[in-house]
Amino acid sequence: MSVVTTEKHDNILVIISNNPPVNALGAAVRKGLADGVAEALSDDSIEAVVVRCDGRTFFAGADITEFGKPMQDPNLGQAIDQLEASNKPVVAAIHGTALGGGCEVALACHYRVAVPSAKMGLPEVKLGLIPGAAGTQRLPRVVGAEAALPMVVIGNPISAKKAHAIGLVDQIVGEDSLTEDAIAFAREQIGKAPPRSSEGTANEDGIKNPALFDEFRQKNGRKIRGFDAPEAGIQAVKAAGELSYADGVKKEGELFMKLMTGTQSAAMRHYFFAERAANKIDGIDPKIDLIPIKKVGILGAGTMGGGIGMNFLSAGIPVTIVELKEEALERGVGVIRKNYENTAKRGRMTEEQVEGAMSLLTPSLSYDDLADCDLVIEAVFENMDVKKEVFAKLDGIVKQGAILASNTSYLNIDEIASVTKRPEYVLGLHFFSPANIMKLLEIVRGEKTADDVLMTAMKLSKKIGKVAAVSGVCPGFIGNRMLSPRQEQANIMIMEGANYWDVDDVLLDFGFPMGPFQMSDLAGVDIGWHRDPERIETLRDALCAAGRWGQKVGKGFYDYNEARQRTPADEVKQIIAEFAAKAGKEQREISKDEIRERLLYPMVNEGAKILEEGMAQRASDIDVVWINGYGWPLYTGGPMFWADTVGLDNVVAGLKKHGLPVAKLLEEKAAAGSKFNG
Ligand code: 3H9
């Protein structure tokens, strides 16, 4: 059966796409749409048209799998121009998510009706692109440049209600009566001149107030730093005000093609599929019966435990949080409430939502209250003996069939599981701090972790808005294990003469939010310090003894001013020089290129070892971990994809040049001229 069919409802032709899973606008769908319009135009009994989709969503965009291959006619622009050109009114009937090309289809229709739960957006920017089927030209003409900018440049979808408020949706219709309501709406438009988005005039706001674009750039500077597509998006929306529609579409086309053939979009498209691939667990049927998680227990109400708990509360899952001391429990619950209230103050939650989430929280001082939880996550002190004690105790209290998880960031899950009588129900759930915000969840698969336990954790991660990847049991799992060699090289290089601020700047220039020494200042140089100023064995001991505890005291590796701007500190240079002299390290100038190679190549090498040992299922999972947990710049695609673009032979040569070890898998791939991804 064809993916696009038509149905006649008296004088209305309904064009229906059925291209699961998300009605992506592949070649057959584009042709079907064009044929549908032709059918409507050639049939005198038809007076109006409705375009809708079967399945879970309206068109979710162009078919990304077709990108990079020769495009079959009609291209999306051509297909949807025919919708707009129709002299019979065309109504888009929207449910699910009208995204990217799907939103452009809706824009080319003369009218848009949507169910209340629908969302609309132009997320191309998240693929390193801008809309390429005239979306940047039609949207501002319908809603104005000011409302179009965030949609094109930031790419977050908006609700049907918001779309209605800005004029993108003409009518909100019944959640369960989309087709009938759309047909009725279409009938009302018969005989009226169809309004065409390409002829809209709302874009004039950008001409009246050209400062709009610079203001937008400034306001979103941090969010779009390093990315090429947002600037192209701003230029395209600006062009919608300055140029004729036809010239604007041409300009959009040029910008689109440049991005499409560039490295950033390739990297971001890789990431799109990587994130989805990471959900798949080798050897486990995705349809396996899951363990229902109706109630979650958290052990430890500190920063980590509280943050972890918030994920579940926000998703509407009741949480019992246990601490040993009343004061710590109260403090922990207070922090959770405060975090929610701050979110509400920023307008991202209502008061009712705050109270709703808090009402699902049960604070307790007794392990016994965890007995009926379906999943208990331990977030106590990072020490094997403590963890073992806790797990033995939990095993005796928590009901059989419940999952016991540790939030450890590097300890051996198998050893922890060994103290329980249910090792198959034990796994690691490594959240990243702040756990209510950071996207990444490393799911650590123990030797005996059962398939349904693992898949339950994976599905749950999506429910709480995390991006998850599975790791095997090894020290530091995927993320921290790869951080180690980078940190090690950073420390070695500053003893060899590299400026520590150069080390930070190299990573900043690469696209990381901060470098290791800035990070140390932010976290607190004194974390884990023995607090004896007389005992100076390491650089950190020396900094702490000198009162340089980090940003919180205004000085650490850097001196900080009131605005928290950093400047390298003479005192620190001196301390480093003394340490280097004591260690007999020869000082030399180290170039930024060398710094970059010595920071990043060993990470790739460690990634290769992780793959070699089967600790990650696939190279792209490593990219997912580093992008979501450690700020690796998305537009490079993650460490393994980036290494592919650098050329694995170059990575190997660089490692050898700097006297660093080369993993077998990396060496083999480089020799074979192959890649980690693809
Ligand atoms: C564009 O439109 C450019 C145009 O302006 C111009 C062109 C000239 N193509 O995410 P899910 C697959 S750019 C191909 O797990 P959810 C996905 O890989 C596009 N495949 O479901 C997955 O496959 P698998 C702009 C796609 O319910 C399966 O569908 N549009 C596409 O969590 C299910 O996806 C976007 O960027 C696609 N466009 O979320 C929207 N989309 O099962 C991208 C999905 O094998 N899509 N797949 O792993 C999304 O944001 C989400 O998929 C969506 C559903 C919200 C729709």
Q: How does this model look, in words?
A:
The structure is a single chain. With 678 residues, the chain is α/β, with parallel strands linked by helices. Helix content is 47%, strand content 12%. It has an eight-stranded mixed β-sheet with strand order 12-11-10-13-14-15-16-17, sandwiched between helices. Strands 1-2-3-4-6-9 form a six-stranded mixed β-sheet, sandwiched between helices. α4 packs antiparallel against α5, α5 packs antiparallel against α11 and α27 crosses α28. The two termini are 32 Å apart. Bound molecules: (S)-3-Hydroxyhexanoyl-CoA. The site of (S)-3-Hydroxyhexanoyl-CoA has 24 residues, from β5 and α3.
Task: Show the helix and strand layout.
Layout: E1 4-9, E2 12-17, H1 27-42, E3 48-53, H2 76-85, E4 90-94, E5 97-99, H3 101-108, E6 111-114, E7 119-121, H4 135-143, H5 145-154, E8 158-159, H6 160-165, E9 171-172, H7 178-189, H8 205-208, H9 211-219, H10 221-224, H11 229-242, H12 245-260, H13 263-277, E10 296-299, H14 303-314, E11 319-322, H15 326-345, H16 351-359, E12 361-364, E13 375-378, H17 384-397, E14 403-406, H18 413-417, E15 426-431, E16 440-444, H19 451-463, E17 467-471, H20 479-496, H21 500-510, H22 516-523, H23 539-545, E18 558-560, E19 566-568, H24 570-582, H25 592-612, H26 619-629, H27 639-646, H28 648-657, H29 664-672
Parallel strand pairs: 2-3, 3-4, 4-6, 5-7, 6-9, 10-11, 10-13, 11-12, 13-14, 14-15, 16-17
Antiparallel strand pairs: 1-2, 7-8, 15-16, 18-19
Helix pairs in contact: 1-2, 2-3, 3-4, 4-5, 4-11, 5-11, 11-12, 13-26, 14-15, 20-25, 21-25, 25-28, 27-28, 28-29
The structure holds (S)-3-Hydroxyhexanoyl-CoA.
